[in-house]
Amino acid sequence: MLPSLSSRRRFSDLSEQEILALAISSEEDDARIYRQYAERLRASYPATAQVFDGMAAEEDGHRRQLIDLHESRFGAVIPLIRREHVAGYYARKPVWLTANLSLDTIRGEAAAMEKEAETFYLRAATRATDSATRKLLGDLAVAEAHHEERAAALESQHLGGDAKSAEDFTQRRQFILTWVQPGLAGLMDGSVSTLAPIFATAFATQSSATTLTVGLAAAVGAGISMGFTEAAHDDGVLSGRGSPWKRGLASGLMTTLGGLGHALPYLISDFWTATVLAIAVVFIELWAIAWIQNRYMETPFFRAVLQVVLGGALVFAAGALIGGG
What we know:
By secondary structure, the protein is mainly α. The protein contains eleven helices and two strands. The chain has a two-stranded parallel sheet. The longest helix is centred in the middle third of the chain and has 33 residues, at 161-193. The protein is elongated and about 90 Å long.
């Protein structure tokens, strides 16, 4: 349990020994976090995992320097003081405990860690009265400031052209499997499958209000169904498709959006105006689906257009014929 705010020490009240102890524990924590990132990335991004191994080794070096200084000034017993014991000390959300972090998220968190560590050492150096302590804290602030350059050097060492290309491909593939593929399936289902009931209702009743009610029910119902189906049918462990909840969210939201696109024009009370606008929206939806297929699934554009527009036209015609019959 974290200490309450009232029980935390103010940074300005810490002694130099306590500041050194805080720096030591912080370097230990950061090294552990980097190693945890490395282990999480090792299977899919082995070269980037080596980068984080190198950054953890850097933090270990800082920790040893700080411990040596502490022993020379205050002895071998290091006070137990951690980030959560100090009011105003930078606090980070424990995202390293979260599963399914993206590579970009991990890299962003690492950059934030280095910036926060630099700020701490600059502040700590102003409190030091011993010249050796002040020098070390200042040097560590500079080291943290240059960690981005060090990370770039480690990346150039471990992420050669082939390794970087392979990791970029893996990251793109994971993005497509987790977000694009279920989202595209949802958009196609929402846009195409709701055409028949919405336009059948429209031409059968010629009532904007009735068509809107049916359209909203079809879109929301399809979104809930697709979302739960996507989340429940594959946990992503064996398929490698990522978090089922992310996939379910993408599928459910895009299904609902696809259905709402040509239902919302019936907010317009004039039936024929609403219908013409709804038909225009349908064509925009179908072209968007074709573009996504071409952009992310590498389907030839004209083949994607033919498949999507032809399928959508057939479903629309079925709905119009049934409603007008």
